[in-house]
Design goal:
The structure holds 2 protein chains of 2 kinds.
Chain A lengths: L1 H9 L3 H4 L6 H4 L22 H11 L6 E5 L19 H12 L7 E5 L2 H4 L9 E2 L7 H4 L2 E9 L2 E6 L10 H4 L4 E4 L3 H10 L6 E3 L2 H9 L5 E5 H11 L3 E6 L6 E7 L5 H13 L2 H9 L1 H4 L7
Parallel strand pairs in A: 1-2, 1-3, 6-7, 6-8
Antiparallel strand pairs in A: 4-10, 5-8, 5-9
Chain B lengths: L33 H23 L4 H8 L2 H9 L9 H31 L6 H16 L2 H11 L13 H27 L2 H9 L4 H31 L11 H12 L3 H34 L3
Helix pairs in contact in B: 3-10, 3-11, 4-5, 4-7, 4-9, 4-10, 5-7, 6-7, 7-9, 8-9, 9-11, 10-11
Classes of the chains: A alpha/beta, B mainly alpha.
Chain lengths: 300, 303
C-alpha cells in the first residue's frame, strides 16, 4: 500500500524534470540552493524572522494555540516509527515536532490527525495546519494547495536482480546499454530518458507491479524508481533484488501540504530554512534515513 | 429519468385505468390524478431545485465545481495524459466492460449448475450439497473487497508456478465470478422452485425424461421468472468491477484515482461515474421493460 501510494505521489514531477519553467513553489524547494548561509534575521531572507513568527502563528493555526499536523494511517518507517506519529520518532514525525518547536509549539501543543492521501487535496478548508506524508511538490499540485519548501530531496535509484550484469557494471557508458522497465509517467521513466539515454527503448507498463514482474522474470534488466520506493522494492518486493545505486538529486522533493494560501506557510518555510542552515535536517536524515543515504551514489 | 414520486408509466397494459382492483401483480396502477398528482410533482420539483440550490449557494461552490465538475480536468482524466502519467479513464472503462461481460458469461453457467446441485435429492450427492451450501454462505457472507484482497495478495504469495504469476486482472475476475456465482445461483434456485410441481408431474406423465423435463419445461419457466433479478445482478456485477482497482488494475476507478493524485482534482471520479451510469441506466431501464412486458403477458389471459 505504502509503495503504491507513494508511487502515485511520486509519479507526477515529470513536467518539472522535463525542464518546463519551474513555478515559484517548485524553484524555492532546492534545499541546497534555497537561502544563502547565515541569512537568518538578515533583511535578504525571503521569510519572516522566527521571533516575529512566534508572535503571529499562535493565532493563525487551525485550532488556536495548537499545531494540528495530519498524516496517513498506517504510516511506515523510516518516516514514522510504530505507526505512532505522536512519539516524535521517525524522520517526518521529528521534522514536524522541530518545526513546531521553532514556532513556539511545545511537544504537548502538537496534535496529530489522520488524513488519507486521496482526501488531503480536497477543495475547501482543511482540518489541519499541514499534512506531512511524503508528498512530492509539483507545479500542477501547487495550483490546488500550498507547499512548504523542501524537507527531503528525493533521488532516483536503480533496482535490479543480484544476478543481473547491471549490479556490477554500471558506469555511465554501460548504463546506456541496458533494457529498462518503468511505470508510465513516473519520475523514474523521465530520468531514464533525460539522463541515462539508453540505446534501447524502455518497456513502459501501466503499473509499477507489472514492471516489477517483468524484472522478476528477467524480461528487462532494471527499473529506475525513486529511492524510498526502490529500497522497499529491493528489500521486500523483488526476490533476489538489489538497489544498485542512487543518482544525484535533480530537485524532486517532498513538501508539507497546506490549504491554498495558508498564512502559516512563510513561517514554516522560515523554520525549515533555519533547520537546513543549522544542520538539524541533515542530522535527522542521518539518524533516520540511513537506509537511503547508504545506497552507493552512481552517475548517469 | 429519476423514478422519484412521479406516477409510473403503465407499460403495455391494454386496459389502462379500468376498474380492476389493484394487486401486487397488476400493471394497471391508476395514475395519480388531480390535486394529489399536482402536489406530488410540485414537491419533487422543489426537492430537486433545493438540492441544486444548496450546492450552488454553498460558501465554496466555486471550489466544489473546480474540484469535482471541472470539464477540462474531466477531459484530461477521460483521455489520459501520458506525459503526466495519467492513464485514460475511458480506456480503463473498457476493461470494466469486458471484465464484466466475461465474468457474467462464466457466472451464468456455473450458477445454474450450482443451483441444480442444491435442488438434487439423492443421498449420493449429499456431500456436494453440503459443500455448495458452505460455499454459498461464505461467498455471500464476506464483502467482495475482502475476498479481492485475500486472493489478489494471497495467491501470488503462495509461489505456485502458474497460479501465482497471473496478472491481477485474472485474480480479480476469479473473485468476481466466485462472489457472483453464489448470488446468481440463489436467484436460479428461487426460479426453479417457483415452477409449480404440477408442471413436472404433467411433463413426466406425458413421457418426457427427467432431463427433458428439466431442460424443456422447468428451466424455461424458471429463467423467465427470474430474468429481471438476473439482469439486476448483472448491473451490480458491472459496477463491482470497480473493486478491481484495489489490486492496481488500470481500470476506470484506478485511472481516475491516479488523475486525482497527479492533478489534485476529483473530476476524474465524476467522469468515471458518468461512464458507469451510461451503461447501468440503460440496463436497468431494459430490466424494467422486460419486467413490465412479462407481467402484461402473464396477465393477458386473466382479463
Amino acid at each position: 500500500m505504502h509503495s503504491r501510494k507513494s508511487v502515485v505521489a511520486a509519479a507526477v514531477s515529470l513536467l518539472a524534470l522535463a525542464g518546463l519553467p519551474p513555478a515559484g513553489a517548485w524553484g524555492a524547494g532546492l534545499t541546497h540552493a534555497a537561502v544563502p548561509l547565515g541569512s537568518f534575521g538578515a533583511p535578504t531572507s525571503p521569510y519572516p524572522s522566527l521571533a516575529s513568527c512566534r508572535q503571529t502563528v499562535q493565532h493563525e493555526t487551525y485550532s488556536r494555540g495548537v499545531l494540528t499536523v495530519a498524516t496517513d494511517d498506517p504510516v511506515y518507517e523510516p518516516w514514522f516509527v510504530n505507526n505512532t506519529p505522536s512519539n516524535g520518532k521517525g524522520y517526518e514525525s521529528a521534522v514536524a515536532y522541530d518545526v513546531g518547536s521553532l514556532l513556539g509549539f511545545g511537544h504537548a501543543q502538537v496534535k496529530w490527525v489522520t488524513e488519507a492521501f486521496d482526501s488531503s487535496y480536497a477543495p475547501g478548508p482543511k482540518r489541519f495546519d499541514f499534512d506531512i506524508n511524503e508528498v512530492s511538490v509539483t507545479p500542477d499540485r501547487s495550483k490546488v494547495v500550498s507547499f512548504s519548501i523542501s524537507y527531503y530531496a528525493t533521488t532516483q535509484s536503480i533496482v535490479a536482480l543480484t544476478s543481473d550484469a547491471i549490479a556490477k557494471h554500471h558506469s555511465p557508458a554501460e548504463l546506456r546499454t541496458y533494457l529498462y522497465a518503468d511505470q508510465i509517467g513516473t519520475t523514474g521513466l523521465a530520468y531514464i530518458y533525460a539522463q541515462i539515454h539508453p540505446t534501447r527503448e524502455p518497456r513502459i507498463y501501466n503499473t509499477l507491479d507489472e514492471a516489477v514482474a517483468a524484472l522478476q522474470t528477467k524480461q528487462v534488466d532494471a527499473i529506475v524508481v525513486d529511492t524510498p520506493d526502490g529500497q522497499y522494492m529491493a528489500s521486500s518486493e523483488v526476490k533476489n533484488g538489489v538497489q544498485v545505486g542512487q543518482f544525484p538529486s535533480t530537485g524532486e522533493h517532498y513538501g508539507l501540504l497546506f490549504s491554498k494560501g495558508n498564512p502559516l506557510v512563510p513561517c514554516v518555510d522560515s523554520a525549515l530554512t533555519a533547520m537546513t542552515n543549522d544542520g538539524a535536517l541533515a542530522k535527522l536524515s542521518k539518524q533516520y534515513l540511513g537506509i537511503y543515504n547508504s545506497i552507493p551514489a552512481i552517475k548517469p | 429519468m429519476l423514478p422519484v414520486l412521479g406516477p409510473p408509466d403503465a407499460v403495455g397494459g391494454p386496459g389502462d385505468g379500468d376498474e380492476e382492483p389493484i394487486s401486487l401483480y397488476s400493471s394497471h396502477r391508476p395514475r395519480l390524478r388531480g390535486r394529489a398528482g399536482t402536489a406530488a410533482s410540485t414537491v419533487s420539483t422543489l426537492v430537486v431545485i433545493a438540492l441544486v440550490a444548496l450546492i450552488l449557494a454553498s460558501p465554496a461552490a466555486a471550489a466544489f465545481r473546480n474540484g469535482f465538475l471541472n470539464v477540462h480536468q474531466m477531459w484530461i482524466a477521460f483521455a489520459g495524459h501520458p506525459e503526466k502519467g495519467i492513464l485514460s479513464v475511458g480506456k480503463g472503462f473498457l476493461v470494466n466492460i469486458w471484465l464484466s461481460l466475461v465474468c457474467e458469461a462464466i457466472v451464468i453457467v456455473l450458477a445454474l449448475g450450482l443451483a441444480s446441485l442444491r435442488l438434487t435429492k439423492g443421498p449420493v450427492l449429499l456431500p456436494f450439497r453440503v459443500l455448495a451450501i458452505a460455499y454459498t454462505d461464505f461467498a455471500r457472507g464476506v464483502p467482495v473487497i475482502l475476498v479481492m484482497l485475500w486472493v489478489g495478495f494471497g495467491v501470488p504469495s503462495l509461489s505456485l508456478a502458474e497460479v501465482s504469476t497471473q496478472s491481477p486482472i485474472v485474480y480479480a475476475g476469479f473473485v468476481l465470478v466466485f462472489a457472483y456465482t453464489a448470488y446468481v445461483a440463489e436467484v436460479y434456485r428461487a426460479g426453479l422452485m417457483s415452477v409449480p410441481r404440477a408442471q413436472v408431474q404433467a411433463a413426466r406423465s406425458l413421457g418426457l425424461s427427467s432431463r427433458a423435463t428439466l431442460s424443456r419445461v422447468v428451466l424455461p419457466q424458471a429463467v423467465r421468472n427470474v430474468l429481471p433479478a438476473l439482469l439486476n445482478d448483472f448491473a451490480s456485477l458491472q459496477k463491482d468491477t470497480a473493486i478491481v482497482s484495489t489490486l492496481g488494475v488500470a481500470e476506470a476507478v484506478h485511472s481516475a484515482q491516479i488523475a486525482g493524485g497527479v492533478e489534485f482534482n476529483y473530476s476524474g471520479f465524476t467522469i468515471a461515474s458518468l461512464l458507469f451510469l451510461a451503461v447501468t441506466v440503460p440496463l436497468t431501464r431494459y430490466t424494467d421493460h422486460v419486467m413490465a412486458r412479462d407481467r402484461s403477458r402473464r396477465l393477458a389471459g386473466m382479463a
